[in-house]
Amino acid sequence: MNRQKKKGVRRQSRVRSKLRIVGNGRPRLSIFRSSKNIYAQVIDDVAGRTIAAASSLDKDFRGTVKTGADMAAAAAVGKLIAERAKAAGVAQVVFDRGGYLYHGRIKALADGAREGGLDF
User: Model-level pTM?
Assistant: First the structure.
C-alpha cells in the first residue's frame, strides 16, 4: 500500500470508530466520492445490511443533472437518499464522511439529505 492510501485508510477507520461510540445503534449514512460520481448508502451495522442506497448513476436520476461530479448532483443524491431512507422507515442516521473533508460535494450531499428529512 502506498503512503497516501495508508493515510486515507487510517483516517477512515478513525472516523468510523468515533461513529460507533456516538451512534447508539443508529444506521449510518456512508458516502463514497469518486472523480465522476457520488454514492450514498444507509447501512445498519447491527444487522449488517444496506437499508437504502442512491448514487448519481441511478437510472431515474441521470437525466436531471449534467454531470455526477458537481455539487448540484451531490445535493440531489442527498435528497434522493433521504427519500429512500424515509420510505424504509429510517429517520435518524449518523453521518459517515468516510475520511473525506466535510466540504464541497460531501457538505452538499449532507445538506440535501437534511432538506429531504433525515436527522443527523
Answer: 0.86
- What are the backbone dihedrals phi and psi of residue 42, each rounded to the nearest 5 degrees, phi first? -100, 115
Confidence of residue 62 (pLDDT cuts 50, 70, 90): confident
**Coil, helix or strand for 70?**
coil
Per-residue pLDDT of 4-32, as tens digits, reads 888 888 888 888 888 877 778 899 999 99
* Ordered domains of the chain (ranges, CATH): 3-116 (3.30.420.100)
Question: Three cell numbers at 60?
Answer: 431515474
Distance separating alpha carbons of residues 71 and 65, to the nearest angstrom: 10
Under a CB-based contact definition with an 8 Å cutoff, are residues 45 and 30 in contact?
Answer: no
Question: What sign does the dihedral 24-28-98-114 (CA atoms) show?
Answer: negative
